[in-house]
Amino acid sequence: MMKQMTRNKEAGRKNKKKSMQWAAAVMALALTGMNASEMAAMIPMQVKAAETANSIIDGTQTTGSLVIKRMSKETGQAVPIGGARYSIYKIMSLIPGSTVGEFASFEKVAAYQDVLKTVQPDELFGSYSAAELDALAIRLEQAAAEQTPTASGITAETDGTYTFENLALGYYLIVETKAPDGYVAGKPFLVSIPSTDNYQSNAAGTKWVYDVAVAPKSAEISIDKKLADSEDGSVKEGDYVQYVIETSIPEYTEDYTNPKFIIKDTMSDGLEILNDTTHPVTIKIDGIPISASLDTYAFTAENKTGTAEDLSIQFQPDYIKQNLGKAVEVTYFAKVNDKAVMGITGNSNQAVLEYHNKPGTDAQAESAEIKVYSFGIEVEKFAKPSAALEGAVFELYSNENLSAENKIGTATSDEDGKLQFSRLDEGIYYLKETQSPAGYTLLANPVKIEITASEMNQVATGTFTLKVNDKEITATDGSFVTKLNTDSGISTVAVENQKGFSLPETGGIGIMIFLGIGIVGILILSGIMVKKMKL
């Protein structure tokens, strides 16, 4: 009798010890999520306690569930994100006792025996620090790469959740095998099913729960490009346009041994990237200018055609790891050249970020496509009713002071009566005729032309308005008609010429007529005088 009481007492102590060790292990996991990098922090969500849960492992319950709710790590409140794929791997089984006096035991899954060889089943992970658990999870992930997952699933787009049902009790390795677009995958982590009800806090644990929910989150990886505040999006040939790129270095974990972080920009052929003392490329990390070197980044800025990038900034892996989470700002200039297009097509460029969203796995983020716009002024020279006039010469000025320093250019009308001034920005211009076609008079006054861009900057398509001699122009088609074409960005100004008139010439036939009249008169007068003399 005494021996039986001693055995029962000893069994009770073992049961109490195992329960305390399991609780300690669960607490260690929870603390791991809270103390380790927030990129993959286990943020506990609501927990549904099984009705049979109590202070010891229930011998009749053999399964549980895991809810993963993928969250973003943004400034302000985190939001759920869909599209993350998770695979889970059972690394250790929990076998609950089925009879009175028989208590829970743990078995390592064979594929992970080597990684878990230092883990004592009676101690589990209760004595592991957060860093040690992180390192262990990475080694387990490497071992799991050759194994078939226990289960896999993709978080829903609507609420960012995925539920793994009917999971056998034990420890599970959670691996994010695909991050949502624009995000870095979280680090692997461990979850126990069941867990004590205090895995979400430092409160006392009172029971076991079999439906566990976690919300791993990581930072969004994005790149933003914009025009500098001094720019309005309207440009002319020869202008310098300043751009600003903003992004952040991802908060990579230790398993990213050789992380990638490259900023690129490809410009349209109408824009030439610059890098000189007047228009330098400037790179700042957390607001501090950083020069290119073997220890920071490699850098190129060259004009290339087609889809080849004109700008490339490739950060060194060690520099990336030394500056995790820091803001990156790049400012640079482009010059508008004679290949710039006019109209709503715009002259575009776009920043691209190449990075690792999992160790060794490439991903890409793109900025919005930024455009700058240019315009043209076309002259249609004609005479009524609809005759095109060739050979008219016009000069265009940027100021009513028609001086040499304000002169933009000179053009001559062709056989269709047309001439054009291309790649102009919005503004007020003055058109002056300096030579009229033969037989036609010059314009008495310059023509005032006003082009006003509306929302024609950044990524907006926009439009523009036209005034000629302060009169709003609404026509959009017709021959020899003042009009505007918003698609092409061309303002057409129809200029009518009047025929000239000639004064009588001095000399020539006029004098001969006068002399003829004089001679006839003299002859008549002479005849009269002769008659009188005969009488």
Detailed description of the structure:
By secondary structure, this protein is of the alpha+beta class. It has four domains: 2-219, Sandwich (Immunoglobulin-like), CATH 2.60.40.10; 223-369, Sandwich (Immunoglobulin-like), CATH 2.60.40; 375-496, Immunoglobulin-like; 507-535. It is built from four helices and 36 strands. It has helices spanning 2-35, 130-144, 317-322, 509-534, and strands at 43-44, 63-69, 71-73, 85-95, 105-108, 151-154, 161-168, 170-178, 189-193, 195-196, 208-209, 211-215, 217-219, 223-227, 240-248, 261-267, 271-273, 282-285, 288-289, 297-301, 311-315, 327-336, 347-358, 361-366, 370-372, 375-383, 387-388, 393-397, 407-412, 418-424, 427-435, 447-454, 463-468, 471-473, 483-485, 490-496. The strands form eight sheets. Strands 14, 15, 17, 18, 19 and 22 form a six-stranded antiparallel sheet that branches. Strands 16, 20, 21, 23, 24 and 25 form a six-stranded antiparallel sheet that branches. α1 (2-35) crosses α2 (130-144). Mean pLDDT is 82; it is low at 1-9, 11-53, 506-517, 519-526 and 528-535.
How far is the N terminus from the C terminus? 196 Å
By CATH, the architecture of the largest domain is named Sandwich
CATH class of the largest domain: Mainly Beta
What is the overall number of helices?
A: 4
Backbone structural class: alpha+beta
CATH superfamily of the largest domain: Immunoglobulins
> What is the rounded Rg?
42 Å
CATH topology of the largest domain: Immunoglobulin-like
Domain count: the total is 4
How much of the sequence lies in strands comes to 35-45%
Name the poorly predicted regions: 1-9, 11-53, 506-517, 519-526, 528-535
State the shape. Answer: elongated
Mean pLDDT: 82
Largest sheet: 6 strands, antiparallel
Helix proportion range: 10-25%
How many strands appear in the DSSP assignment?
36
